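User: I'm writing a short report section on ligand binding and want a predicted complex to refer to. Could you take this sequence and iron/sulfur cluster and write out the structure as tokens? A short remark afterwards would be nice.
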Amino acid sequence: MSLDRLLADVDPLVAGALDAVLDGKELSTREAELLLETDGADFHALVRAADLARSEDKGDDVTFVVNRNMNFTNVCYVGCSFCGFSRHKDEKDAYDHPMEVLLEKTRDAVARGATEVCIQGGIHPGKDHTHYREILEAVKGAFPDVHIHAFSPEEIDFGHRKSGMELADYLRWLVDAGLGTMPGTAAEILDDEVRDVISPNKLKKDRWVEIVTAAHSIGLPSTSTLMYGHIESARHVAEHLGLLRDIQKRTGGFTEFVPLGFIHEKNVLFNHMGARPGSSMAEDVRLVAVARLFLRPWITNIQVSWVKMGPKLAQLGLMSGANDFGGTLMEESISRESGADFGENLPPEEIRRLVRELGRTPVERSTTYRVLRRFDDPEKDPPSREPKREPELSGPTRWRLAQERAAAS
Ligand code: SF4
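Assistant: Sure. The structure tokens for the complex follow:
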């Protein structure tokens, strides 16, 4: 079979869309929908085109941030059906961390090289807007050099409604206390038809857009996200991407796009509402590829989530249009408590290894994509700053080591 024959198998509509986007034209949402449903030769052409676009847009660097996730409370009354993290305040494993715990976690993160802490929590009925500011003041006061990436639009909505301030004033009030950037989470699918099923009590699409654009308008950047693999269709995904691209054209405030696969095992949406059991590998790869092609040149940082995908599939995402590996996280409970089992901490040395396996260059970045350090030469890598842990050894290995120690003594 000749290469020409392989190319001839690609659907002319798919080939036309890929050709156009590589030529610098924008994809329509209808074309994004078409690409989100590709398989066979069309799928492979899509992935190849996205990888080519990635190399044109971002070169061969793969960025990552050394950060720590901190959830200050898991008490939440919103009741999203996809959430395995939230608790009623009277449940025995409900928590509401005092400030000392957050400061200790930040201290540990800084000692391990973190430049960012990502702080989010449930919507606790006993809190108000002042709690968010108190967290910022405490963390920033003790660690002025740490970048605080905090509070989803859902938390901003809650705090703002309690505050009685104008939205922009409320956001400035948080920025004054140390807020550096905002996670673009709580987006799920930005379509109220879907939101009314999966999270009817959560903020609606227009409110999410209002909060994010208000943040961008005062110079507070945010990420952008999408949760897929549950009840949404390709049309919902394409329109969500279209909305993000439109916002970015107006504000330029998104730092990146992060597709987040639905983790299904331990929540109502899958177990009682008939949602799909998360995405397939092909869906993960297609979405990364379509995001690269559809969002260029407006949002050019496309991140893979190793917590959702696992490190190996994240590597495949980096070969399919993504250029960012996300963060080390150090601690992660939102995905884990819905059933994800890829761990909570990926140390920088492990990220560098995974990136180099692809023949690419690991680059540590700030939250806002300023280059902090390139790792061109593995020989010059810094030593690990992770706490020393005894490796977990198998029974025979433990027995053999004990014999060797006994013989040596
Ligand atoms: S996803 Fe967030 S807002 Fe929804 S129930 Fe869970 S913690 Fe609450």
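A remark for your report: The chain has a mean pLDDT of 95. Residues 76, 78-80, 83, 85-86, 122-123, 154 surround iron/sulfur cluster (CB under 6 Å).
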